[in-house]
Amino acid sequence: ITIRSLHLPFGTHMYNFCALDAADIKETMRMQKEMLRGAAALGVKYVIAHGGIPLPQTERKKYLAIARENIADLQKAASPFGIHVCVESLLPSCIGRNSKELLYIMSAHPDLRVCLDPNHLFDEDHTALIRAVGKKICHCVYDQLLFQVISEARTNKTIDDDRGILGIASLFQGEGERQDDRFGDGVIAAVCKREF
Fold first, then answer.
1. Which of 66, 70, 141, 176 is 20 to 30 Å from 76 at the Cα level?
2. Which sign, positive or negative, has the C-alpha torsion 95, 98, 100, 104?
3. What's the rounded Cα separation, in Å, for the pair 25 and 78?
4. Which DSSP category does 8 fall into?
5. Structure pTM?
6. Torsion of CA 141, 143, 146, 150, to 10 degrees
7. Mapping DSSP to helix (H, G, I), strand (E, B) and coil, where does residue 158 land?
8. How far apart are the first and last CA of the chain?
């Protein structure tokens, strides 16, 4: 068995990248970096991270900046192991609720990536998020729904081929053979192979 990804622990105080309490953040970062060492020993190349649960919502920008800084710090620790931190797309109450927030976080370090969870997207249309962050997506929680979204986008010609997205749809519509699933998620493997 090849383990391709590992989901890091998450919570509202501990394991929350946007927690305000200095002791919580220090312990969170210590434990998450310890998880990186374990992931590296298993040969994992992608760790999935929740951006955080900001409380209260009225200070969202502040929490987003804190999460960005801490996730970038985690990626700095992950890069020597050849591991990408993949920030998961999350519910509207959480950090990473749309492409704007995900791209803001991604801009903190070139090795950061996105884990697409289509079931969490309420703040933005699936195809809009894929179009915006397509090159950064390297993991998907539920690739069957993503396939449906990509297929619909392909039919409606709403996604440009230069993003590599149409190539994904062709792998599942009989226009080519499905490539080796070396990244653990059939749909996203094509993005990784085309873009990285």
1. 141
2. positive
3. 17
4. P
5. 0.73
6. 140
7. coil
8. 24
Angle between helix 126-133 and helix 99-106 axes, rounded to 10 deg = 20
pLDDT in tens, 50-107: 999 877 788 899 999 999 999 999 999 999 999 999 999 998 888 999 999 999 999 9
Cα–Cα distance for residue pair 87/19, rounded to 1 Å: 16
Q: Average pLDDT, whole number, for the chain?
A: 76
Residues 6+ apart with CB under 8 A from 87: 49, 50, 51, 71, 96, 102, 105, 106, 112, 113, 114, 115
Give the contacts of 122 (CB within 8 A, at least 6 positions apart): 91, 92, 97
- Are 54 and 63 a contacting pair, CB within 8 Å? yes
> Can you tell me whether residue 7 is helix, strand or coil?
strand
The three-state secondary structure class of 85 is: strand
Distance (Å, whole) CA 57 – CA 38: 34
Residues of the chain predicted below pLDDT 70: 139, 141-196
For residue 6, give both structure tokens: 């590992």
**What φ, ψ does residue 97 adopt, rounded to 5°?**
-80, -15
Spatial separation of the C-alpha atoms in residues 166 and 190, rounded to whole Å: 10
Extract the tokens encoding 161.
Answer: 């081929």
Percentage above 90 pLDDT, the chain: 44
Dist. CA 159–CA 147, nearest whole Å: 13
